Amino acid sequence: SPLCPLLYLDWVFVPNIVTIIIGFFLLDLHDRLNSIVPLQLTLQSQKKMSQVAPETTVIVTGAAGGLGKAIATAFLEAGANVAICDINKERLEAAKTELSSKFGDKLLARVADTTSDTGVEQFVKEVVDQFKRLDILVNNAALCDTFDAAGTCSKELWDRLINVNLTGPFLTTKAAVKVMESEKRGTIINIGSNAS
Q1: For the packed helices 117-131 and 168-183, what is the interaxial angle rounded to 10 degrees?
Q2: Phi and psi (nearest 5°) for 82?
Q3: Distance CA 44, CA 180 (A)
Q4: What are the two backbone dihedrals, phi and then psi, of residue 44, each rounded to the nearest 5 degrees?
Q5: Is the pTM for the entire model greater than 0.85?
């Protein structure tokens, strides 16, 4: 059967820097809910270093891999200082090793739990102490849902999803806004899906 578009998103985070195009298509019209596959993920960094001021500082949460790491890499390639955090220490260490080899002291990588108020505050403080400013926050950290029906979803799973997908971005935004208000500038990008 023919392919049918289910979801097509096109984000431009900062004009002419990062374009992320995600396309999801159905494999079979008859099996809509069970046959979803990612067809296209394109990350382009345009005009590289000339697009951001060298002192621009960006935080990307959930950036040890996947989309978060791709966003962090694009900002680094554009010349920004980038601070990444994740709760997966091993993946974060691997990302740090890879990115530091290319971008040196433009990168700060720390284990941080976005659901912890004190952990987030400490991470943001460390970012500002190192880079002297905060311009952009990308709330990318998230958990995928198992899509259990309401009657079978456990309270523990519900609480974890709400904490990571909603409370986490709230806490990182709260910490970033304090800095951004004092600097009279800033951009906050929240990445979400139907699952969040």
Answers
A1: 40
A2: -130, 130
A3: 27
A4: -120, 135
A5: no
Burial of residue 91 (number of CB atoms within 10 Å: 0-12, 13-18, 19+):
middle
The label of the residue with tokens 């987030």 reads: 120
- Token look-up 């990444």 returns 84
Q: Could you report the per-residue pLDDT of 161-174, keeping only the tens digit for each?
A: 999 999 999 999 99
Furthest CA-CA distance within the chain: 56
- For 16, list phi and psi in degrees, rounded to 5: 65, 15
Who contacts 134 (Cβ-Cβ below 8 Å, separation ≥6)? 57, 59, 124, 127, 128, 176, 179, 180, 183, 186
The stretches of 45-188 forming alpha helices (DSSP H) are 66-77, 89-103, 117-131, 155-162, 168-183
Tokens 């990307």 appear where?
Answer: 60
Q: Are strands 36-45 and 57-61 parallel, antiparallel or unpaired?
A: unpaired
* Dist CA 81 CA 26 (whole Å): 39
Instruction: State the DSSP code for 47.
Output: S
What pLDDT band is residue 143 in, cutting at 50, 70 and 90? confident
Query: CA-CA distance, 160 to 6, in Å (whole number)?
Result: 28
